[in-house]
Structures are given as C-alpha cells and as structure tokens.
Design goal:
This protein is α/β, with parallel strands linked by helices and 748 residues long. The chain contains 27 helices and 29 strands. The longest helix has 39 residues. The site of one magnesium ion has 5 residues, from strand 26.
Length: 748
C-alpha cells in the first residue's frame, strides 16, 4: 500500500520518497552513507577491501570506509563514530585474541548492539569458538581467502540490511516506550487545558523537535457552523491561544486542520503534521505541529499509535470535565451550585483580607405550586428570570448561586447583601412570555464574621435561619443566631435511643434486589439498615447513620450489618443463586478504623460467605480522600476477593487520574441523575457520561433509584447493565426476598 503525503493542496508526493530522504532520522546523521569500518593490521587487506567494495551502493546509499590498523585505534575511532553499520574485523592482530577482546569491548563496554560484525582471519585454525560467536552477536565468520569480491559484497549487503532493520526496530520500540510513558503522564492531567498542552509537549519529545504546536477543539456555534478554537499552544504559536483558527494570518494551518477533521485522518506535510483525534462524538480535536523536516515511516507509525492512544484519554478528560461542571454548576442557570458555593464560602473564610461578608439564602415562596400550575418549562423560565435579576440588580462583586430547586444563595458584602435589598428585588413582577408573575421570597442570612466553622456549616446555619423566617412569617427574613444552633439535646437523645435499639435487637437489615437491565433477572441485592422505634415509626438511615458515625457506634453497627449480609448471602446461595452479589454500605468512620480489614476477613471466614460475591459500597467523597492510604486499603480489600463500588457516583468530583489508581469495580449512578433522565430535555446527560466513563475505564455500572419504565428504557438504551430501584422492588426483609427471588426466577 502506498500512502500519500500532501505538502500543500496541489503538491502530492509519495510517502516512500519522503521516507527515503529522511532515513537519517532513524539511522543517525551520516548523510546518506553506510559506514563500514575495516580493522586489520595488514594494509593490503584495507586496500583490497575498499577496492572490492568501491562503487557499491546499498539501498541507494554508497559506502564510506573507516580504517583502523590496531585494536587501540579502532577504539578511538568508534568512540567518535556512533553510526558504524558494519565492522570487518581481523581476529588475529598483534595478539591471538585481540579481535575477540575488541568485540567484547564493542558489545559489553560501548553497548553497541546494532553494529554488525564480520570476523575475518588468515588461517582457518584461528576460528573463534562457536559460543563466542553467539555470545558477542557476531554476524559472520570468514577466512580471508573465502572473501572474494562477490562474496564480500553479499556478506556486507546482508549485514547492512540487518543493521538497518535492527535500528528501525529499536527506534520504534523506544518510541512505543515513550508513548506509554507519555500516556501515563497525560492521564495525570486534570483539565483539558493541561492535557492538551501536555499532548504538544509529548509529541515534541517523541519526535525530538521544538514544541511549536497548537491544539484545537471544534465547537458548534449558534448558527450551527463549526469553528476551531485553540485551547493550548506552545513555541511560535503561543500567542494564538484562545483564538479561533479562522482569525489566523496563516490560512494554511486552519485549512489543513479542517481537512484533517473532515477527512478523519492525519495529514503530513514536508515540514508539518496536522493530527486529528476522534472525540466521543460530541467533540472533535486536532493539533497542528511545525516539525521543520519530513517524518520517516517509523515516526509516522508512532504518531498514528500515539493519536489513537490519546483519543481515549481525551474523551475521558472531556467526560470528567463535563462531570466536574455538572458537579459544581447548575445546568439550568449556569450559576455555581451548592457544592461550588460551599467552596467559595471556604475561600472567603480562609482569605486574610477582611471584608464583612454575608451569606443569604433566598427561597421563593410557593414555587412548587407555581411550577405545578404553569408547568415545568414555565417554572424554568421563572428561575432564569430570578437568577438574572439577582445577578444584575443586587450589585457587583457578589456571588449568586442556585443551591436547590427554588433556593438561591447570595454571598457578598454586608452592605449589599441585606434583607431589604434582597426583598426589594421581588417587589416588581417578573415578566415571562409577556405574562407578569408576582413572586415573593423568604431570606435566611448568616454574617460570616460571627461564624465559626466552614462553608458547610455556614450553609446549614443559613438554612436554619431560613426555616425560622418561614415559621415566623411569610415574606420575611431572619439572621442566624447561635441560640438557633442545632439542638444538641435532640442529637444526644437519639444517640441513646439508637444504642438501646441496637442492644435490644430492634434494628434489622432489608435487602433491595439488583437486576440485569436486559433480562430483568435478579443478580444481587444491597443490604440496607432499618430502625423502627417502639412506637412503630421508621427512622431513615439518612438521619441515624450520621449519629451512629458521630458516636462511634457505627463500628459495631457496621460489623453487625456486614455479618447479617454475609449470612443472608449464604442462605440465598443455598437456594440456588450461585452468583448472587451482596452489596454492603460502608461508612467513612468504619473504613478508616485500623481493624477494618481484619474485621472484614473475620466476618467472611466466620460466615463462610464467598468473598467474590460480596461488594462494599463506598461513597464518592470517601474515594477522593487520603489517596495513598486509600489506594493501599482498596488493594488489600481486592486481594480478599471482595469487590468495591463507588456509591452516589456523580455527586462529588472524581479526578480521572485518581479514579484510575483505585481498585474499584463498579460505579453506582446516583438516584438524582436517574430521576433527571426523564425530568428535563437535557435529561440523560450525566447518567450517559457515567455509563460511558464506566465503559472506557472498564468498570461496571449500576443505576440506583430506577422508579419507572421510561427511566429503565433510557438506561437500557444507554447500555447501563444493572439497575436497582422501586420499579423492580423495594428493599425486602429476608423472607420476602426469598419469595421474590422464587417469583422472579423464570427471568433467569
Ligand atoms: P444508598 O446507599 O445510596 O442507598 C440507596 C437508598 O435509596 C436507600 O435508602 C434505598 O431504599 C433508596 N432507594 C432505592 N431505590 C429507590 C427508588 O427507586 N426510589 C427512591 N426514592 N429511593 C430508592 P435508605 O435505605 O433510606 O438508605 C439511605 C442511605 O443510608 C443509603 O444510601 C446509605 O448511604 C445509608 N445506609 C443505609 N444502610 C446503611 C448501612 O448499613 N451502613 C451504612 N454505612 N450506611 C447505610
Ligand atoms: Mg448504597
Ligand atoms: Mg446511593
């Protein structure tokens, strides 16, 4: 197959030509000659050899000769000539084994493995031992009388061919090694900007050139036309960063990049390369590099491997960047969300510059009803209008964020963020689609100067103040005061009650089936803890687990749940479900306990539960803490055979490089993203991204909180293999689960 290389639109040359012209890049800098070294103490042998090989060209390259008359002289020449292709060496010079010693020196001391060595001797009796020939990789052994002109030509040609092949192989394995290392380095990059800048650096390393390059992302504009924007640039193109390609003075760069993308292939010119990277459908990337010379075939091949290697990393980084955005920004208003606001408050609290700052939570009254009567779409537009008014009217230098469905958070100067100013924004109606809507709001405020603790607590306190304001009167406000603080008494009471319930065996475990999305057959279950108080009220684990963590009771409680789940697994397997997988939630406090691993092993041993059928669920925030200790612990858990899932995935922010280092088997899509699938037109995006990320990282994915058939259908179409949710079954007690399994057996 002959590839073509284009230098510009009209100027096509065959690749083979380019390659031949630049073979030097693999084979050193001896402009187009093969260096042949003759080592012999007999001057006649030198002249006879050069005469015999004069006018010989191999693969269009002539030979050039280097002459050494002693081993010492040969060493000196070799020290300065890195690219000798063939050595014709006299075995016997002043001393019997001088030739072989020289060979040993070339191979073992100079580490010159590529050069081909042909031994010659005057007398047949001086032939080296066969193992010496093998040990030193000697190419050929001939007596001088054997080397007629024709024979010499044949032997030298064969040796040069083999030298060339060895050089090519070494160059490409060095290149592949570099690609591997480059990929590993690139995977550690967290943002698209870092990653793409890294790509330019790595390609330059790979080719041994200056990093004159730029990296573009193709974006679709409002008018559906596409434009390439530079996201990273280095060297002579440095100033082009963030510019659209169409604005370049040199139109050839843009044209070539567009062509590489539309034709879906790399384009190599006489002194440049335009490389395309296939994204994950929604994004396309291309890079332009000034190379300054043509590339040889080996380099072309390496670049192709590099590009396909990088494409995967690139689409992962895009997925993670988008996940990051959805973790920190509200998709409707594009404002920072609750997570991001927490961070901004933390930054503000940590700042040394003192500015009296207030956090206000603004809750729109009766928004749910408005939403229900006028429809979601209208509700969305209302929220956008409120966001816009808060942003434009309340003053500059403040942060407006959306912390919940109908709740906005505003952080700013005490003077700007005050109840009167905030409530004044709701005096005039909001106009949506020509229709006026009058809204009212309630505000909870916290003065950060009076606040101890971090952003999370500040938000919590603002919520407490908001609640208080709502109780007192509508369309009011309330500042947080310490007396409103969390009712510690209530906590202490609950802690006692929980401990008592545990001791009196009033806690129990239920199991929620997990199914195969395609066949709907049961594949496993998640163990969930339940607490029913004496007056028969159920208390949600979301309330009592934090208290169990806080009091340390979770250590005992968690072990008990694990053992219950192990025993249940053994029972289920006895019923004939051999591959049934049992998932158990593990809390942060439990996981950090120094005896966690031994506790796990002991529970498995005592109950006889097969480790490969047990799974531990850790939350995404746990997965992101204390990287080194965590990596080690997860490895140790994996060694026991127990698998690991990341629960509530998508709610935190996992960096890709970190995720890749963890021994994790499964991602559990948080219920919020499953619900979202059918709720808005933007719908499936996050769930879809997680499914795709799972596929790229070869991790299993399960969706939790699947409540209706539409969600199940979309998830199945997106390729989500497993599901859990009320649609399939609520959490069931052990007995009911067994009945449920029997009833659903026909699905298997
Ligand atoms: P999780 O691990 O994310 O568990 C899933 C929660 O979603 C469970 O709530 C489950 O009942 C609920 N759920 C499942 N399917 C649906 C659905 O289709 N719709 C809706 N609306 N909800 C669904 P639950 O049992 O109240 O547990 C809440 C959280 O408490 C769990 O979240 C987990 O973080 C924690 N938890 C429960 N049991 C334990 C335990 O034994 N140990 C620890 N450390 N945490 C536990
Ligand atoms: Mg869970
Ligand atoms: Mg969950």
């Amino acid at each position: 197959m002959s590839k073509t290389v284009s230098h510009n639109e009209d100027d096509l040359v065959f690749l083979d030509e380019t390659v031949r012209a630049s073979d030097d890049n693999i084979l050193g800098a001896n402009n187009g000659v093969w260096l042949v070294m003759i080592i012999d103490d007999d001057a006649d042998v030198h002249s006879a050899t050069t005469f015999a090989l004069s006018n010989v060209a191999i693969q269009n390259r002539p030979l050039a000769f280097l002459h050494a008359y002693s081993a010492q002289q040969a060493r000196e020449i070799l020290a300065n000539e890195p690219d000798v292709a063939v050595i014709l060496l006299d075995v016997v010079m002043e001393q019997q084994d001088e030739g072989l010693q020289l060979v040993h020196y070339i191979r073992d001391v100079l580490h010159r493995a590529e050069v081909r060595i042909i031994l010659r001797t005057g007398q047949p009796g001086y032939a080296p031992e066969i193992d010496a020939i093998q040990q030193f990789d000697i190419n050929d052994y001939k007596t001088k009388s054997e080397l007629t002109r024709i024979k010499l030509y044949t032997v030298v040609t064969a040796a040069i061919r083999s030298y060339e092949q060895i050089c090519t192989i070494n160059a490409s394995s060095r290149g592949l090694d570099m690609i591997l290392r480059a990929s590993t380095e690139l995977m550690a990059m967290q943002t698209l900007e870092e990653f793409t800048a890294g790509v330019i650096t790595q390609i330059s390393h790979l080719l041994g050139i200056k990093p004159d390059g730029l990296f573009c992302v193709q974006e679709t504009l409002h008018n559906q036309e596409t434009e390439l924007f530079v996201v990273a640039a280095d060297g002579k193109y440095q100033d082009l960063i963030n510019h659209p390609v169409s604005a370049f003075e040199d139109a050839q760069i843009g044209n070539t990049l567009v062509r590489a993308l539309s034709e879906g292939r790399n384009i190599y010119g006489r002194d440049y390369a335009a490389l395309h990277f296939t994204g994950n459908g929604s994004s396309n990337f291309a890079t332009f590099l000034k190379i300054g010379r043509p590339l040889n075939e080996n380099e072309l091949r390496l670049l192709e491997v590099f590009c396909s290697n990088i494409s995967v990393g690139l689409s992962n980084i895009m997925l993670v960047t988008r996940l990051h955005n959805s973790a920190f920004y509200d998709s409707l208003t594009k404002l920072p969300n609750r997570n991001r606001l927490k961070e901004i408050i933390d930054e503000n609290l940590a700042s040394t510059e003192y500015r009296p700052t207030t956090l206000a939570l603004i809750d729109i009254d009766h928004f749910a009803e408005t939403n229900d009567t006028l429809g979601h779409q209208f509700g969305d537009m209302l929220l956008l209008a409120v966001a816009a008014r808060l942003q434009s009217r309340l003053g500059d230098r403040l942060t407006v964020s959306r912390v919940g469905g109908d709740t906005f958070g505003v952080l700013g100067d005490d003077v700007q963020v005050n109840p009167a100013a905030v409530l004044a924004q709701f005096e005039r109606p909001f106009s949506i689609d020509g229709q006026d809507v009058q809204l009212s709001a309630t505000v909870g405020l916290v003065r950060l100067a009076e606040h101890e603790g971090r952003g999370v607590e500040a938000l919590k306190n603002a919520h407490i103040a908001l609640k208080r304001a709502k109780i007192q009167q509508r369309t009011g406000y309330s500042y947080f005061s310490r007396s409103m603080g969390v009712d510690i008494r209530e906590r202490v009471n609950m802690m006692h009650a929980l401990r008592a319930a545990f001791e009196e065996k009033r806690l129990f475990v239920v199991y929620q089936p997990q199914i195969d999305m395609v066949t709907r057959a049961p594949v496993g279950a998640e163990a969930l803890l339940r607490w029913q108080t004496e007056d028969a009220t159920m208390i949600s684990p979301n309330r009592f687990i934090p208290i169990a963590e806080y009091s340390g009771l979770i250590i005992e409680l968690g072990e008990w749940v694990l053992r219950q789940a192990c025993q249940e697994l053994v029972r289920i397997q006895r019923l004939g479900y051999a591959d049934f997988l049992m998932s158990v939630n593990v809390s942060q406090v439990q996981f950090r306990h120094p005896h966690f691993l031994s506790m796990l092993k002991k529970a498995l041993e005592d109950t006889g539960a097969p480790p490969h059928c047990m799974e531990l669920e850790i939350t995404e925030s746990m997965a992101m803490e204390e990287p080194d200790a965590l990596i080690k612990l997860l490895d140790q858990i994996t060694e026991t055979g127990v698998s690991i899932a990341i629960d509530d995935f998508g709610t935190g922010f996992s960096s890709l490089s970190h995720l890749q280092k963890l021994s994790v088997d499964r991602l559990k899509i948080d219920r919020a993203f499953v619900t979202e699938i059918t709720e808005s037109s933007r719908g499936s995006s996050i769930a879809e991204m997680i499914i795709q990320l799972g596929r790229n990282l070869e991790l299993d994915v399960i969706a939790e909180g699947v409540e209706d058939e539409r969600q199940a259908k979309i998830l199945t179409e997106l390729g989500c293999p497993f599901g859990q949710g009320f649609l399939f079954s609520r959490p069931l007690s052990s007995d009911v689960l067994h009945t449920w399994l029997r009833e659903h057996k026909e699905h298997q």
